[in-house]
Amino acid sequence: MEINNIHTLGQLKAAGYKNTGIKDELRNNLREKIKSGQPVFEGVHGFENTVIPELERAILSRHNIN
Questions:
Q1: Is residue 44 a part of any domain in this protein?
Q2: Quick one: which of 47, 49, 59, 66 has its CA closest to 21?
Q3: What is the domain extent for residue 66?
Q4: What's the pTM?
C-alpha cells in the first residue's frame, strides 16, 4: 500500500507499520547517518571533539537528554 493511500489507523496497521519510541527512532536515524558517512549535526560548528561525541553516545545508549 502506498503511503499516500493510508488514511486510517486500520490501514496503517495493515500496511505493517510498527510503532517505535522516540529514543529508538533517534538511535536508528543516527546509526543510518553514521553508516552512510553523512554529517550528523550539520551546521553545528566548534563542538566536533567535545559535545557532539557525547551526544552521539547518549543517543545510541538511549539515555535521557535534557
A1: yes
A2: 59
A3: 20-66
A4: 0.73
